[in-house]
Amino acid sequence: MSGAKRVTLETLARETGVSITTISKVLNGRGDVAPATRERIEAHLQEREYSRPGTSRSDVLEVVLHELDPHWSVEVVDGVRAAAEAAGLHVSLAVNGDRHAPSADWVADVVRRRPAGVVLIFAGLRPDDRRKLEARGIPFVVLDPAGDPASGTSAVGSTNWRGGLLATRHLIDLGHRAVATITGPPDMMSALARADGYRSALASADLVADPAWVRHGDFHEGSGDFHATALLTSPDPPTAIFAGNDLQAVGVLRAAGRLGVDVPRDLSVVGYDDIPIARLTTPPLTTIHQPLRRMAEHATRIVLDMRDGRSVEATRIDLATSLVVRESTAPPRR
Fold it and tell me: Residue 64 belongs to what H/E stretch?
């Protein structure tokens, strides 16, 4: 609405039936406001499309993620930075929360900072936190290879089910029938989708997924090593392993080397993500390319469209995954 940005604190206080002080506390992310009152004020601010008179337009775009690793995160941050710099923005990086959502403290802080927008590398955003950002007019997008955000949240992800299907079908086409998978945590939608793609590929080849061969790791190298060791020392080891990401695949290669299992002569290994390390392993890793940098660029452009008032439909966009064949896969010897 054209007059919404001229609404005064006095008007907001009169319309909501609370004091100007309470309105100001909510606007500044203060915690000493009753939840029901805060929710009512935030809903009214959003309806009024309120922003403070004279508030300068920030030139900072925030990227928030729960961990910073030297592989996956670098691809994402580079993508955000490229799109942000093209629009004349600086990038601020925060490590906060867990893999599900940022902490409540971060939300209160970002409300005070009022950045140009936020790219969140999480599975989602709590409803209350989403309302707080929307009420202050802070645009945000979830860059989401790890979950399935709630309705009304714009998110960019990739075709995880198809990636799992492609990886497993590649191994089946090579002649493997004993194929295991080490996917990610069972509470992450991406891990479940990749495992479902694995099962679908086996079913389409009239193969059954042995429950003992479906392992849930944590998307880190150590869990790939741990689960691969268990699989490869079992009485009937698999001839191929589809790891749910490249870091776990590195752990599989490490376990195989320690146990004297040659890759790919004795064991074929497929990873997921196609981060730079996949080209540097011995042997170089066959993997599923997840377009992390392009996903980050796309998420950033959506945030910028929101900031500039261009219409953006809140939806999930999944970019295509593809198979990259290198030297860690070959036909089975048995």
Answer: strand 60-65
Question: Could you tell me which residues come within 8 angstroms of residue 96 by beta carbon, excluding any fewer than 6 positions away?
Answer: 64, 65, 66, 102, 103, 105, 106
pLDDT at 221: 95
Q: How many domains does the chain have?
A: 3
Asked if residues 158 and 296 have their Cβ atoms less than 8 Å apart, the reply is: no
* Co-location of 278 and 313 in the same domain: no
pTM: 0.78
Same structural domain for residues 111 and 182? Answer: no
Beta bridge pairs of residue 121? 65
Domain that residue 305 falls in: 60-158+292-319
Distance, in Å, from the CA atom of 249 to the CA atom of 290, rounded to the nearest integer, reads 15
Co-location of 284 and 164 in the same domain:
yes
**b (16+ CB within 10 A) / e for 195-207:** bebbbbbbeeeeb
